[in-house]
Amino acid sequence: MSTTPVAEASDVEATVEASDVQAIVLRPRPKPYRGEYVVLRIGDAEQGREMLRRILPHVAPAEEWWVPSLPGWLGIAFTFEGLKALGVQQASLDSFPVEFRQGMAARAAILHDWGANAPENWEYPFGTPDVHVALAIYGRNEQDLQRVLELARRAHDELPQISVVYRMQFGELPEGRNPFGFKDGLHNPHVEGSGPAHPGSEAPIKAGEFILGYPDENGETALTPVPQELRV
After folding, report:
1. In the chain, what are the domains?
2. Helix (H, G, I), strand (E, B) or coil at 35
3. Distance (Å, rounded) from C-alpha 182 to C-alpha 49?
4. For residue range 195-218, what is the model confidence (pLDDT) as tens digits?
């Protein structure tokens, strides 16, 4: 996310600082690819922060997505419980939207996740407080994927309070279909100011709908969470 001030007027197109935004936020999955999701649990805040210091240099920015010289690509995401485990101050935690703070399991009825889809039937660790950090790791092939997985493993090597609680492999679907089984680009809309539109995208969407610190479709720029560093 960008630290560069942007205009707040809705009629001004904000140019997204792609070098400051994760590739997984702005770019479609590259082709071809092999991938794996890795979910981590943080048992100690200091070790969690050390893991982040090690792994953040390997997170792929949108500006350099799919650079031929790289062996693969890595994206990272945090849950509310993960931010708590990292030691984020309570005032900052309280400033996040209620939907993020509650989590999907607590909102299952609103999301119509009941019966066979109810949280008690979810695969562990989903729906529990043990999901803290999620890594999305990509490579052109299995060999490249394993190289990036090794980089991720080294980030928590000799940090016993960082544990892997879930892994799932994924890959490109037949006929170039997206993870939902469709061939259109609706699952990955083009963000205004982020560069050339990718094939299949429709009208661009304001950057603030996806990236904090930019105007959204209503011309408004988010002022939470606090401090500002959590919005960039």
Report:
1. 1-18+188-232 (no CATH), 30-171 (3.30.70)
2. strand
3. 38
4. 887 666 678 999 999 899 899 999
